[in-house]
Amino acid sequence: MNSAPLITIGITCFNAADTIVRAIQSALNQDWPNFEVVIVDDHSTDDSADAALAAIANEPRARMVRHSYNAGPAAARNSILSAARGEFITFFDDDDESLPTRLPIQLKTLIAYEKRIGTSLMACYASGIRRYPNGYEVALPAIGSRGEATLRGTAVADYLLTFRLQPNFFYGSGTPACSLMARRSTFTAVGGFDPQFRRVEDADFAVRLALLGGHFAGTPEVLFIQHSTSAPDKSPEKNLEAHQRLIIKHQDYLKKIGRFEYAKRWQRLRYWHFSRRYGPFTLELLGLFWRYPYGVVQHLLTTAPRRLLHEGRMRDASRNS
Asked: Considering the domain boundaries, does residue 1 fall inside one?
């Protein structure tokens, strides 16, 4: 009998015919003796489902669930949670690939944290690399993967909703579901993913976990490669809509800490920047600074240099590709 705990690897799939086989193979190649792979095809309109079925033919560790309509990534993740048999559940994206050591290292990190802190209400994230089509790569260090400070509770909710950074905490690259592992009991306690979200459903999950007092840890080891892609649902308009929905959902908490208006307006500022509308960007920035001078200066000093450096390197990589 296998004494290693069963881990469910969940892969959400939508119109990923060119990449889904790579993602599935990276799941089946995991260096762990006891896992299952649950693929949810969210009513793809290309050959994704057929490609996935071919990839898992005669593979007893894998099975697929097919949605009869496109329900969105949150609903697809909930279908994985419903189908999962594992004590631990982790998510792989349909256009990413995970290294074979991801399961053992991430589980070891999670269990060691639980024993050290004495909690099972926690999420563990893997560090990774984001690779762009032009060859440029960005490190994605996991939240909580550096330093000795224990990252938990409202410190994470404040960061995800208002970008407020507290000293001594390492927030890394946030809380992407594609790098998440947690116990089944944690997903149950939080209530799974909110199907009203078609973007930032992972941030919403993490906010709700944080407001329950949950803990966040990460692996320092790089365990996955995220292949950056563009899609209509990743436009600045869709991002703004999703983040504003997130802020409205959690407005009671944001009003309690006096950051509701700040959170809404900062998301608009980001929208003007990413859509390259610098006139409205300047007006929004001046308005924010007038009302929240300390918060805006602190925010810009901690985020703007990194953003400008990233965009410069992206331009250089594009010119050299």
From this structure: no
Whether residues 279 and 137 share a domain: the answer is no
| 223 and 240 housed in the same domain | no
Assigned domain for 38 exists: yes
Q: Once rounded to an integer, what is the mean pLDDT over residues 21-27?
A: 98
CB 135 within 8 Å of CB 185 = no
Q: Is 151 helix (H, G, I), strand (E, B) or coil?
A: strand
**Per-residue pLDDT, 167:** 83
**Global pTM?**
0.91
Per-residue pLDDT reduced to its tens digit, 249-266: 999 999 999 999 999 998
Q: For tokens 């000795």, what's the residue?
A: 148
Question: For residue 245, how many C-alpha atoms fall within 13 Å in the half-sphere facing its CB?
Answer: 16
Last residue of a domain, one of 203, 227, 251: 227
In sequence order, what are the residues at sequence separation of 6 or more whose Cβ sits closer than 8 angstroms to the Cβ of residue 46? Answer: 15, 16, 17
Residues of the domain holding 289:
232-320
Mean pLDDT of the chain: 92
65-119 tens-digit pLDDT: 999 999 999 999 999 999 999 999 999 999 999 999 999 999 999 999 999 999 9
Burial of 255 (0-12, 13-18, 19+ CB in 10 A): exposed
Query: Which is nearest to 139 in space by CA: 316, 321, 309, 320?
Result: 309
For 63, 113, 212, 216, the CA distances from 148, given in Å and listed in that order, are 40, 11, 22, 12
20 within 8 A of 56, measured Cβ to Cβ = no
Say yes or no: 170 and 312 in one domain: no
What's the rounded Cα separation, in Å, for the pair 9 and 86? 9
Q: Are residues 187 and 315 in the same domain?
A: no
Q: Decide: 145 and 219 in contact? Cβ < 8 Å.
A: yes
Nearest to 71 by CA among 113, 103, 43, 31: 43
Task: Name the percent of the chain in helix, strand, coil, to the closest 5.
Answer: 50, 20, 35
